[in-house]
Design goal:
It is a single chain. Among the domains are: about 200 residues, Isopropylmalate Dehydrogenase; about 100 residues, Alpha-Beta Plaits, CATH 3.30.70. It contains 13 helices and 18 strands. It has a ten-stranded mixed β-sheet with strand order 2-1-3-12-11-4-5-10-8-9, with helices on both faces. Strands 15-14-16-13-17-18 form a six-stranded antiparallel β-sheet. A two-stranded antiparallel ribbon has the order 6-7. Helix 7 packs parallel to helix 8. The longest helix is centred in the middle third of the chain and has 17 residues. The protein is elongated. The structure holds NADP nicotinamide-adenine-dinucleotide phosphate (NAP). The site of NADP nicotinamide-adenine-dinucleotide phosphate has 19 residues, from loops.
Length: about 475
């Protein structure tokens, strides 16, 4: 492990070479950054496969965590998730540990990298929420045959990512921000992102803003990607469309990324460790280099960032490339880096290098209870049961069990579709049932003791695994209806 350079005037960065092709890309980037004269001192640390093999279950040793806490900035090569050494990804651990809530992925057409979109002028950036959504990783097998994954999205999380997207558009002199969601189907989770976007957009009147449904966004990205400027979206949507978008401009060798948080930022390419190329000195270092350029801007080293970006674009314009662009006549990773270094100080006259201003990270209150309501009421509960009975048998049994209870059975749904009382739906039922109980007329608010007594009644005859209260916040229902429920 190298010691940090002595000069105190230099900006300290944690450098994680990573696995597979990581060290080759990271060394090339390190050499180019050093040649640019940017005042960076490196503190080299490890994470990933070698660490898993030492028995550190997270793949990230405490030393690396302490280093990032100290430097607040890391440049990282890809980390392998080795099969058989624990199931957690070291990448996800790092992102979550430091609450890097935004994953910023620029996608732009590169000179002489021929694609079916060449000449269209693709130059967009995807801002992906990075810690919430289905990636919170909260999964349960509810019955032996039915799995559930919780999609968690918060107003605070939405506000942070939306504000960041608008601030990024301002910092990069962009004109438009699209918010891409599946709010038409998931009205509370994805809907929260849409609503937050629409509430915040008027604070940025100089920027055009519009909502687009994520599936149409994918379609539009393939048809006319040049219409997009900034796209803000949730974690899973962003994961998918950012890989799609990198395919439009020549592949993963050209796809950089930044994980931004208010305390720590981690810069890394989108690609993985590409093990089949490890140690062969043939991989394209551009994605890691561009991530390094993003890091320099984050560190206010705008001149060095600009110089490297010009040198990189000029190198491609001069007809130099690595084997992912074309095998014939390709340069090795280190030769390509040498060419970029030789071009430092020269300008690309053809490709546009954006003027960047410092990115203003949104600052929101730290309190967990970010949203307050004046009035709340619980009107019932969904009790999730495991049962091999038919919908009608189960419904009749629950009706009978509820006869003496302040709660009545309103309906039963199976995977979201109402199946009791029978409305003719042709649902192919499985053994996980959502049984919706509501207070009988005249009851004001469901008390916990009433619910506990009711649950005990239900549990006397059926196996339950999950319960969810039906709440109203300021008079608005905070639960979705089943298909077919009214
Ligand atoms: P991958 O490493 O990204 O490689 C997939 C393919 O993409 C490569 O075979 C190669 O395509 C191309 N490619 C990737 N990087 C390139 C570069 N710099 N230059 C040129 N071409 C490049 O994906 P994977 O094989 O699915 O994953 C390998 C390991 O990486 C896994 O353990 C995975 O968990 C990990 N991973 C880590 C990260 C991260 O650290 N952030 C991200 C993704 C995956 P061709 O074969 O067509 O040449």
């Amino acid at each position: 492990m190298t010691k940090p350079s002595a000069q105190t005037t230099k900006k300290l960065v944690t450098l994680i070479p990573g696995d597979g092709v990581g060290p080759e890309c990271v060394r090339a980037t390190q050499r180019i950054i050093e040649a640019s004269g940017a005042p960076i001192a490196w503190e080299e640390q490890h994470a990933g496969a070698s660490v898993f093999r030492q028995g550190v279950a997270s793949g990230v040793p405490q030393e690396t965590i302490e280093s990032i806490k100290r430097t607040r900035v890391a440049l990282k090569g890809p980390l392998e998730t080795p099969v058989g050494f624990g199931e957690k990804s070291a990448n996800v651990t790092l992102r979550k540990l430091f609450e890097t809530y935004a994953n910023v992925r620029p996608v732009r057409e590169m000179p002489n990298v021929k694609t079916r979109y060449s000449g269209a002028g693709i130059d967009l950036v995807i801002v992906r929420e990075n810690v919430e959504d289905l990636y919170a990783g909260i999964e349960h097998m509810q019955t032996p045959g039915v799995a559930q994954c919780l999609k968690i999205m918060s107003r605070k999380g939405c506000e942070k990512i939306v504000r960041l997207a608008f601030e990024l558009a301002r910092a990069e002199g962009r004109k438009k921000v699209h918010c891409a969601t599946k709010a038409n189907i998931m009205k509370f989770t994805e809907g929260l992102l849409k609503k937050t976007f629409e509430q915040i957009a008027p604070e940025y009147p100089e920027l055009e803003s519009s909502h687009i449904i994520i599936d149409n966004c994918a379609h539009q990205l393939v048809r006319t990607p040049q219409q997009f400027d900034v796209i803000v979206t949730s974690n899973m949507n962003g994961d998918i469309i950012s890989d799609l978008a990198s395919g439009l401009i020549g592949g993963l060798g050209f796809a950089p990324g930044a994980n931004l948080g208010n305390e720590v930022c981690i810069f890394e390419a989108v690609h993985g460790s590409a093990p089949k190329y490890a140690g062969k000195n043939v991989i394209n270092p551009t994605a890691v280099l561009q991530s390094g350029v993003m890091m320099l801007r984050h560190l206010d080293e705008f001149a060095a960032a600009q110089a490297i970006e010009h040198a990189l674009l000029l190198t491609l314009e001069q007809g130099f490339y690595t084997r992912d662009v074309r095998q014939e006549g390709s340069l090795s990773t280190s030769e390509f880096a040498d060419r970029v270094i030789a071009n430092l100080g020269k300008r690309s006259e053809l490709a546009r290098v954006r003027e960047h201003r410092p990115l203003k990270m949104p600052k929101l209150p730290a309190a967990p209870d970010f949203v307050h309501v004046a009035k709340r009421r619980t009107i019932g509960a969904d009790i999730f049961l495991e049962s091999g009975l038919s919908a009608t048998e189960l419904g009749k049994s629950l009706d009978k069990l509820s006869q003496e209870s302040p709660l009545r059975l309103k309906m039963i749904s199976n995977r979201g579709t109402k199946v009791y009382a029978d409305n003719g739906a042709m649902t192919d039922c499985v053994d996980q049932w959502r049984c919706r109980f509501v207070l009988r007329d005249g009851e004001a608010d469901l008390r916990d003791e009433t619910l506990a007594t009711h649950l005990a009644r239900v549990a006397s005859a059926h196996r339950w695994m999950h319960i969810e209260k039906l709440q109203e916040f300021d008079g608005v229902a905070a639960y979705s209806l089943a298909q077919g429920e009214d």
